Amino acid sequence: MTGGDELSGAVQPGRELGSELLRDPVVAERFEAIAGFAVVPVTLNVRLPGPLARDGRWRYVAAEAIAPDWRERTGQTGYHLLDVLVARRYRAVAFQADEPDGPPPQRARPGGRRSDRDRGDR
User: Domain residue spans in the chain?
Assistant: First the structure.
């Protein structure tokens, strides 16, 4: 993505790390506070056709703001987040993880994650 208001790309399988971690009630509660709505424990992985250009609408959440051991659990130092609408209807959060050492070898599959939930009450 080189700018604009739409993120689009090819859906692809992910590592299932997000779904797994969001099943933990403590993690789910923390992500609800970060996102501003209940986040369901599913992810949609999208490979963008080009580099992602983050603008001023993106915000950053450090791993320590999620849990003290988040980096050890995930290999991620934080996330760049953007509030989005999926299919121009469903509230969601697009996020791109910072993985300075790359993904763990046993889970190496590329792709950004986006969790969505239709809440319409924001």
Answer: 10-116
CA dihedral sign of residues 6, 29, 62, 69: negative
- Domain 10-116 in CATH 2.60.40? The answer is no
Model pTM score: 0.69
41-81 pLDDT tens trace:
777 778 888 888 889 999 999 999 988 998 988 889 999 99
In three-state form (DSSP H/G/I as H, E/B as E, the rest C), the secondary structure along the chain is: CCCCCCCCCEEECCCCHHHHHHCCHHHHHHHHHHHCCCCCCCCEEEECCCCCCCCCCCEEEEHHHHCCCHHHHHCCCEEEEEEEEECCCEEEEEEEEECCCCCCHHHCCCCEEEEECCCCCC
